[in-house]
Amino acid sequence: MILRPERAGDIDAIRQLTETAFKTAPHADGTEHLIIDRLRAAGALALSLVAEAEGVVVGHVAFSPVSLSDGSTDWYGLGPISVDPAHQGEGIGGKLINEGLERLKALGAAGCVLLGDPAYYNRFGFVSDPKLTLDGVPPEYFMHVAFSPVYGGGTVSYHPGFYG
What we know:
By secondary structure, the chain is of the alpha+beta class. It has 4 helices and 8 strands; from the N terminus they run βααβββαβαβββ. It has helices spanning 11-22, 32-41, 92-106, 118-121; strands spanning 2-5, 47-53, 56-68, 75-83, 111-115, 132-133, 142-146, 154-158. The mean pLDDT is 95.
């Protein structure tokens, strides 16, 4: 398996993969592939990585800039992340997350936030903290990983591409 940045020729495969992966997800609304399209069109897809196995895209993760109400900069949001249902449980998602976080650190990012299941994302260092919130979301499901022990806080806002 190869982890690499997306290429122009991957766009349709990423869209199909994301649509398929989220089709039966319990907390999905079916627009995850459109979020990626809108972020890409707005130039807000800061990091987009694919997992390729035997020439086929089997996983994808997107990172885009987020805003913090206290004015802190260089924060990113992880998501959507997709793995082909036939390859779930093989560690592909974890590899994409770890690679993405390492690349964000190399870019000088301050940290990364996400909305997800703590039982899964805690293993990557994500924790909830009342200093960082997302309106309308139970605090235990909104998590972050900071790349410095000192970081800002406030309400987080995702790029408008998340909202259509």
